[in-house]
Amino acid sequence: MLEVEDKTPLPKPDGPETESLAFRDEEGELNPEFLAAAADAIEASEVERLQRLVEDFHESELGDLLEALEPDQRPRLIELLGASFDFAALTEVDEAVREEILEELETATVAEGVRELDSDDAVTILESMREEEQAEVLDQLPAIERVALQRSLDYPEDSAGRRMQTEFIAVPPFWTVGQTIDFMRETDDLPETFYEIFVIDPAAHLLGSVPLDRLLRSKRPVTIQDVMNAEPDRVEATEHQEEVARLFERYNLVSSAVVDDAGRLVGVILVDDIVDVLEEEADADIKQLGGVKSDEELSDTILYIQRSRFPWLFANMCTAFLAAGVIRLFSDSLERMVALAILMPIVASMGGNAGTQTMTVAVRALATRELGRANAWRIIRREAAVGLLNGLVFAIILGTLAGLWFQSPQLGFVIGLALVTVLVFAALGGIFVPLTLNRFGVDPAVSSGPFVTSITDIVGFFAFLGIATAWFHL
Amino acid sequence: MLEVEDKTPLPKPDGPETESLAFRDEEGELNPEFLAAAADAIEASEVERLQRLVEDFHESELGDLLEALEPDQRPRLIELLGASFDFAALTEVDEAVREEILEELETATVAEGVRELDSDDAVTILESMREEEQAEVLDQLPAIERVALQRSLDYPEDSAGRRMQTEFIAVPPFWTVGQTIDFMRETDDLPETFYEIFVIDPAAHLLGSVPLDRLLRSKRPVTIQDVMNAEPDRVEATEHQEEVARLFERYNLVSSAVVDDAGRLVGVILVDDIVDVLEEEADADIKQLGGVKSDEELSDTILYIQRSRFPWLFANMCTAFLAAGVIRLFSDSLERMVALAILMPIVASMGGNAGTQTMTVAVRALATRELGRANAWRIIRREAAVGLLNGLVFAIILGTLAGLWFQSPQLGFVIGLALVTVLVFAALGGIFVPLTLNRFGVDPAVSSGPFVTSITDIVGFFAFLGIATAWFHL
Q: What is the DSSP annotation of B223-286?
């Protein structure tokens, strides 16, 4: 258990308002009673009661509370808490929630709050504001902070430059370990957390890095030059955050220098931001595969969600019409043999599901770079073989069942034949569609679904109705 | 760019075999030419050439190479490289690959390799071995290491105890900062990486922790007691790794103490292992939503995959038969009006897709604990409203198109009415199914899919064919 759950109860004040409500229940879910108490305190503008409730809250808990409140209560909570509100909590909420809250707050309040933050958190907040308001907040900050934040904001969205922290420790290579440690002991304004110190030349070019544990293990007279890692992990500030995340993951990093195009040290990226990037990315893949936009959040409004889910349903409608067109080609057969109409959705749905299985594996393997030129053919062959095998197995099962149901062994044979065909096509579609989209630079997670199901629907109806028409001379 | 890509080319040996092949191409994909060269060197047992190829490889690159090789080449690579093979690479490959390789290697080789590793990596390797072989390897290790590894292995699978590293630095509270730093300078056998040191009493109970940056900033005569965090982050060794990962994520941790049930310090979990856990978990959710078992890997055999994908397809077949049963109820209507057979798959497929959208959002929000008792009703109402809205929008679009296609405004009206019905049911099914499964302790990612699509299929066919039959008096 983490410390938050061990926390000693707050000293109870007098009066009936004594509260020792837990923020989360045993399963880690937000406690509805706590939420109600917080909402009450906000509605009644009871500052002290509110402060007692959220005293010692970690920024992530404060963030979760903000998300759970009604939209109009969120800025009120911040105003009521005043200087005791930790603006880092705003980095823990959904982007839509953050934008809404920032709309409501005075720029002076935001400027005050942002000043207390590490630069990466400040940037996260500033990038959620409209440009004019962003400029107003920046204007109210001291020059040094303003320049550093502005520089981060000038890097492209979702780049390393936006995620980096501009607070870091950099020393010249000729310092000794002792000098460096003394410097850190004497400087008040050190970054809140750091895992390595950097070594730079007078023009700020990155020369090396020294992890803290190595610094601690070295004797005082040794020069930094002699203990530094001369090939430090570094990323370019313009690099996309997903690429940076993959590097952290691959090389088990906790911190990496960020350099500009001239190799000058401009910031540091820490692993906690990378953990968030990885989560965001996985979240995006999951949602996109399910036909939901990657930025859809629980806090979005009904109208926003309706609009954002529309395109996928529309694409699906178009492919469904295509499939219906295929069915129409066989109108006569359907009229003569209604069993075909009853059984055809089974064939199509088996194909759709098998195609989705293959596609899911392919999309994920492409995202994690496990699938590439070196093994594409092996995976294609493997999927085709799996499709053929499962096709044969289900041909026997489904053929038998359908034959018995309609007391027609021939119908069973026809559906079996159709099933083998559709499962092989489903496997091929499931792998070729994502590979092709990826080759052309289209994100396969977003758009593979409709293509794959339209292939499986069309092949499914065509194979089943076509084979049946030929077999029974319909 | 990371250092690996900046690496200066190796000194070129004489002869025609000079190689300066890149391991990855610009897109981060494995270079097929490199792979071919490595495979050649293995087949020809050319130890030196092989060593030159993988010289300075990071364990993750060595792991990627192992995965890309043919199965019989993998143990050969390890044997050829001998002592220069870093066994940490085995922690970077899929579990199935690891098991296969370990089957082939001599236990003496494994024991030798495992000795060099941090305990968490050693445990990852040992837990992939059969019990007898695991015991053989443990027998060949020095007693201290054997005991520590055995203790980790005694914790349940996927628990914090399995993921922890048993190498850590713990000091008594009365030591000074100076003493502690001197101790670290003089001790050779420190953990490879660490971000905090722990404070314990004589019985090893965890009293506190000191992050390295705080240690560095403190003056030498200060006692540890005065700088330590007296409520250090801690997890129980029996806690599931996913819970631990959520805590790291929530509180931005890089390292956490692991304690036994008596509060004694037994190990430390570092963030790099947590990054892997988060990836595994996201991977599992993505695969399960797509109807694939969470442990399916690109390296699995055709037969294994065929068998593992069978149950989902079988479940889908059963629900498809149910839906076909519904269609059969309306055989007469279908015979009289073949347009119904043509249009009915459109209705079902729209419902299936809308249901999947809602389900995806719900499953993901349950996994990240964003959806809980406190907001379930709000989300249910929101999803129902989105379903109703999109139902109305598509009723108009689809109704118009179908009406024009079959030149029957009445048919358009019928399909529109059916569509509103099915999209509302899809939304409700998409949220209630995961919520209910979750309430009963069943993982919603694994089993929501078949339930949701069977609801949408059955409601879709029933609504469309039922309304049509009533409307047209079929």
A: BHHHHSBSS--EEETTSBHHHHHHHHHHHT-SEEEEE-TTSBEEEEEEHHHHHHHHHHHHHHHH
